[in-house]
Every structure is written in structure tokens, then in C-alpha cells.
Recover the amino acids of this structure.
């Protein structure tokens, strides 16, 4: 816990240094939200693996700790410094076209939690990850007061409707805020973080093969996919063929077109179960684990380890049972094929004596084969056959007995799929995992 406390303390200290500058702009809003933002950063330190960030990174993102819609490019451990992007266009310019994974955190919605969760995902795939910050504004205070922050799985739509408060008061125009200005005359049903995720997924110049979420971030991903379904169904169809969704700490309904959705829930995660749809069963239940992903805690979800197992098809998923059931017919067919050559050999040996009797009148100029005594003991033919047995029958018998090994080879097990690289599109089968339509 010392590393977690150090990362949180450094973030709070750096935050206090920049507080006067932030209060100078939007004085009333920043002064009212600062205590709540510091509290949320502390909550995220308990629920996310903040020790995975370096001291330079925690200091770097402290000023933007609650900026909703902010995009970060988080490389794996040892891969360099993370990058802050104020807009989708800047994300593309700073190397976003090479990013193939996206991570959206929940709980407190701070930048330190989003970066820590994205770092765990990046360590699992060994490549940079795009992280979207959920943030915390005036609308979140009202949403929290009526229980929307606690029951995000059921009252998540309330938070999106209350974001008009932040738009009226004024806030940094990050992420896909320009899209909200273009659609100002329409009724808003999504938040700025959802709009940013939907804009990234809808961009044809970007290609994501993995979308990971935790807690309230699962709700953001679901809302973004539904918004994409209404605005660009063709792009959503492309995503269903090239991307998979992995959720941690909560089962949220996704569009029916997504059959590759893997829900991971801790066995002791009462908070995640309370915010999950009961009609959706968990694909992976991790024993003795709760809602937190901070590996300093004894009941934490090891996001990196679980993702590695999922991508390598080593996690205990439901679809592995039919493949194991197909092994038995294959083994039976191989056993039957192994028994067939023995019957053919017996038939050849039994048919040999009549042929020898017909050719007994020929002059005895053919010398017997050296192996004939061995064949006599095995087959025990009549005495006349011991001298005049044709070499062809002996050769057929030895050839049949010398090749029993290919028939008894055990077929390769089909229950485990090969490791799926995250940098290439994934193969899809529509009927593999059907999502409930509720």
C-alpha cells in the first residue's frame, strides 16, 4: 500500500500547486468541485492500480485529473511517458492511428484511475492503449445526490441528462465537445465521455480490436455503441467483426450485434452485481475477488493476468465444452482405423496356401526368403508352403506389420484456441455467444 499512498500523495500535492491557476478561470465552478475531485482521486487510488504509473506521469496528469472527455495514450510499463490529447484530432496526430485498444474506467472518474486501468490493459497486450477520462462535474454532484452514481447500472441515463448544467456554466471543451456544439438543437442523451468514445469508434482512420471497461466505464462503452448504432450502423457492423469487448466489475447490456462480449466479475463483488443486469450471466467469475483492480489489496482483480488468459484462450470460457466433446468421435475413428490393417494381414496369410498349391509343379529354382522361418512360426502354414511361399506375400505381411504407428496417433486436442494477436482483426462467429435481448 505504500506505493499506492505515494502515488496518491504526489497527485494531491501537484494538484494543490495548480489550484490557484485553475480557480482564476471559472472561479465558482472549480472552487465548488475541488473537494469532490480530490475525494474521487482518493477513491480511484483504492480501486485502480495507480502504482503502475510513474511519478512523472502522476505529476503530469494531476492538473487534468477531472477533465471529462480527455484522451490519453498510455503505453505499457517501460514504454515511455503517457500522452495527453485534448481532442480527437490531436489523438490522431499524436499516434492514435497505431493504437488498437481502448480502456474506459469508472468509479471516481479521475484521470489517475483511467490511466492506471489503461496501463494494466497495455501491459496485457504489450501495446499502447487509448484511455478516455469520465471526469467529475456539477452534473455528477446532482447525479450522486439522487443515487445515480451508486446505481450506475440502472440510473446511468440520469447523469447524461444532467450534463447540461456543466455546458451552461462552462467547462473545458475536450474530447468530442465540438460534436456537441454541432448537435446543440437535438436532445442530448449521452455525456461528453460517451460522445468521445463514440467518436473514436466511428472514425474510419482508427481501428480498435479490443475495448475494455470497468465499473461505470462499461456503461459509457454501452451508451457509445448504442449511439453508434443509431448514427452509423455500417461502422458498428465493422466493429462487430474486428473488435471484442471485455467488461470488468459489471454486466451491462450491449448491442445485440456484439456476440464477442466477455463479462468478468469478482466472486465477492457485491457492488458490481448490484449494478449488473441479472439476465446476463458472467462469463468469468474470479474467486475471492471484489470490485477493486488495485493489486495491493488482497481481493483485487488482476486485470493484466485475466486479459492475457482471455486473449490466449486460457480462461475458462463456456464455448470450450463443445470442442472437447468432439474429441471422442475422433478417437473412436482413429481406433477403428488402427484395427483395419490387422484384418487385412490375416486375410492375406490365409489366402496364401491355395496359391502355393497351384504353383507346386514349377521347378524349385526360387530360394526361400531368410525371413520365412519367422513367418512360419507366426502363421503355421502346411509343410509344402514352407519352401515355395511367394515373396510377394511375405513382403505384404511385413509392410502391414511395420506400419502400425500412424493409425494409433492421437489427434491434436481442439478445445484450446491459438493465441489471438491484438494487433490484427479477430475471427468472428455470430452464433458463438448470444447476448440476451433485455
Amino acid at each position: 500500500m505504500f506505493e499506492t499512498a505515494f502515488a496518491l500523495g504526489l497527485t494531491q500535492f501537484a494538484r494543490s500547486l495548480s489550484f490557484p491557476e485553475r480557480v482564476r478561470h471559472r472561479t465558482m465552478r472549480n472552487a465548488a468541485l475541488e473537494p469532490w475531485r480530490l475525494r474521487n482521486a482518493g477513491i480511484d487510488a483504492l480501486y485502480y492500480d495507480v502504482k503502475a504509473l510513474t511519478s512523472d506521469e502522476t505529476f503530469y496528469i494531476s492538473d487534468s485529473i477531472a477533465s471529462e472527455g480527455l484522451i490519453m495514450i498510455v503505453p505499457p510499463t517501460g514504454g515511455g511517458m503517457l500522452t495527453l490529447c485534448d481532442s480527437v484530432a490531436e489523438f490522431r496526430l499524436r499516434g492514435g492511428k497505431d493504437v488498437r485498444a481502448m480502456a474506459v474506467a469508472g468509479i471516481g472518474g479521475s484521470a489517475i484511475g483511467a490511466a492506471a486501468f489503461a496501463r494494466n490493459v497495455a501491459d496485457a497486450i504489450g501495446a499502447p492503449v487509448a484511455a478516455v477520462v469520465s471526469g467529475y462535474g456539477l452534473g455528477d454532484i446532482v447525479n450522486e445526490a439522487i443515487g445515480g452514481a451508486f446505481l450506475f447500472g440502472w440510473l446511468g441515463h440520469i447523469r447524461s441528462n444532467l450534463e447540461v448544467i456543466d455546458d451552461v456554466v462552462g467547462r473545458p471543451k475536450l474530447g468530442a465537445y465540438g460534436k456537441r456544439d454541432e448537435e446543440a438543437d437535438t436532445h442530448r442523451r449521452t455525456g461528453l465521455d460517451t460522445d468521445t468514445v463514440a467518436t473514436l469508434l466511428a472514425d474510419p482512420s482508427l481501428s480498435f480490436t479490443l475495448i475494455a471497461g470497468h465499473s461505470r466505464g462499461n456503461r459509457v462503452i454501452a451508451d457509445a455503441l448504442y449511439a453508434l448504432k443509431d448514427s452509423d450502423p455500417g461502422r458498428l457492423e465493422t466493429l462487430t467483426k474486428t473488435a471484442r469487448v471485455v467488461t470488468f466489475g459489471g454486466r451491462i447490456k450491449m448491442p445485440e450485434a456484439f456476440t464477442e462480449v466477455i463479462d468478468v466479475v469478482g466472486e465477492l463483488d457485491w457492488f458490481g452485481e448490484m449494478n449488473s443486469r441479472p439476465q446476463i450471466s458472467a462469463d468469468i467469475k474470479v474467486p475471492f475477488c471484489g470490485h477493486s483492480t488495485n493489486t495491493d489489496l488482497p481481493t483485487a482483480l488482476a486485470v493484466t493476468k485475466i486479459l492475457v488468459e482471455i486473449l490466449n484462450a486460457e480462461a475458462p470460457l463456456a464455448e470450450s465444452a463443445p470442442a472437447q466433446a468432439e474429441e471422442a468421435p475422433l478417437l473412436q475413428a482413429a481406433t477403428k482405423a488402427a484395427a483395419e490393417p490387422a484384418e487385412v494381414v490375416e486375410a492375406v496369410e490365409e489366402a496364401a496356401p491355395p496359391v502355393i498349391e497351384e504353383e507346386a509343379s514349377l521347378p524349385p529354382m526360387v530360394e526361400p526368403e531368410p525371413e520365412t522361418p519367422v513367418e512360419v512360426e507366426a502363421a503355421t502354414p502346411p509343410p509344402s508352403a514352407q519352401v515355395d511361399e511367394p515373396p510377394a506375400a511375405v513382403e505384404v505381411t511385413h509392410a502391414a506389420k511395420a506400419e502400425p504407428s500412424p493409425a494409433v496417433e492421437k489427434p491434436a486436442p481442439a478445445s484450446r484456441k491459438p493465441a489471438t494477436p491484438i494487433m490484427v482483426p479477430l475471427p468472428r462467429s455470430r452464433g458463438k455467444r448470444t447476448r440476451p435481448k433485455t
Q: What stands out?
A: DSSP finds 19 helices and eight strands in the chain.
